[in-house]
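Work Package 3 (structural annotation) set out to generate three-dimensional models for the target panel prioritized at the project kickoff. During this period the team completed the workflow that converts sequence records into discrete structure tokens, so that structures can be stored uniformly alongside our sequence database. As a representative example, we reproduce one entry of 144 residues exactly as it appears in the project archive.
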Amino acid sequence: MRNDRRLSRMLHVLIHMARHDGPMTSEAIARMLGTNPVLIRRTMAGLRDAGYVSSEKGHGGGWAITADLNAVTLLDVHRAVGGPRLFAIGIEHPEPGCQVAIVVNEALGDALQEAERLLVTRLGSISLAALVQSFDDRCDSVSS
């Protein structure tokens, strides 16, 4: 099964956009990610619908960040880009009365719920501003 890279790719784009003066075109973003501009527009539409970016058509147009980066979390971006379920592991739906399946499903279900709670909490605690600051700090330490 392939990993879904929408979240990491859009976070990558948003950091570039935060450091870029003016809008970025779908074509420029697509070149940066090695993908198709149509795919970029489709994915960025979720961010636009959530109010995190805006888009302008025509000469000088493109995508621009419109949200306060302190107010947008990684979880917000995950949800806006239509990210998949956080875990692909699932439980079996057995015939009623199978005690083995019931025990297995209870154990897996509890573990998955706990892991998802932890991941949602962590993603919800990291702002885009924190990512941009971390990037800036790395750049400063490299240039020093």
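The first strand starts at residue 53 and ends at 56.
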